[in-house]
Amino acid sequence: MIASGHWPVLAALLALHILSVVFWIGGMGFVTVIVLPALTRLPPGRRFPAFQELERRFARAAQILVILTGASGGALIARLHLQPLLDRTAGLWLDGMIAFWSFFVLLLFVLEPLVLHRRLAAQAQRDEPRVLTRLGRAHVILLILAVVVIAAAVLGAEGAA
Predict the structure, then answer these.
(1) Are the CB atoms for 47 and 132 separated by under 8 Å?
(2) Spatial contact of 20 and 69, defined as CB atoms under 8 Å apart
């Protein structure tokens, strides 16, 4: 049972967590479903630079949202005493959220800035359509994984309550 004095803090943490996820995954969905397909209307040679510019603008927002998601999620785990779920089958939904979040921390803060930006730009110079096709596929896979993780988290959290 949650003490009534703790409820406003928990409500604020939960709201922050859910809104951060909505904007983070919603932004990824927008890029996947709207931006990447729209790039095909640009002339060849301008598609990847346009993607880079849009991605650069969204990357900072995604980094902030991922930090907020992790901070609020960690605080919720601590305040709701969910740590015991981390080593049980009943907590796979929580493990899934943490794994997905951890992958994005690695992607947004390490892989993209240190490796992927240069590598993809060099590959796009040689074969822009192939790079954009691979980016599209990667985004679709990540979006599907996000939907699965979110669905599992909603169902798992309901069962954990």
Answers:
(1) yes
(2) yes
- Distance from CA of residue 82 to its chain's centroid? 22
* Confidence (pTM): 0.89
User: Cβ atoms within 10 A of the Cβ of 48, count?
Assistant: 22
pLDDT above 80: residue 1? no
How many domains does the structure of the chain reveal? 1
Going from the C-alpha of 106 to that of each of 11, 33, 91, 113, 134, the distances in angstroms are 29, 23, 23, 10, 19
**Residue type for position 51:** F
| Structural Rg of the chain based on CA atoms | 18
Range of the domain at 127: 4-160
